[in-house]
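Below is one such record:
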Amino acid sequence: MMKIDQKDRQILRVLAREGRISNLALAERVALSPSATLRRVQALEAAGVIAGYRAMLDPAKMGQGFVAYLSVGLKTHTKSAQAAFEQAMAAASEVRECHNVTGNVEYLLRVEAADLPAYKRFHTDILGALPQVSTITTYVVIGSPKDERK
């Protein structure tokens, strides 16, 4: 496992927010030379600390203005029930995140849809049709005062 020092943590914080920042600008932000910064970034990538880079999408501008978090409970707690549920969620384009959690339910989902009728179709035709599902609780997002994914 790679030892991560304070300077590496500075680099990671900047890259987490601005993955497309140039090496020169990154070096200035973290007060290192460009060559030292590049070496550190390459070492972090090689060690797998930086797993990749991706584009952050704006759901509203993509016609996905409805966002909700759902807690989902399963009828049975078997490995096969979980695998079937996870496979169905992987295939559902509305599901942006699926997390297996502890507590009163088994899963927490982040769902994006065009609008309430589109969400209802997902809720009824996809999620509600799964034989593994026993409970669904929907939490509609009405605002996101802090969202570090953006």
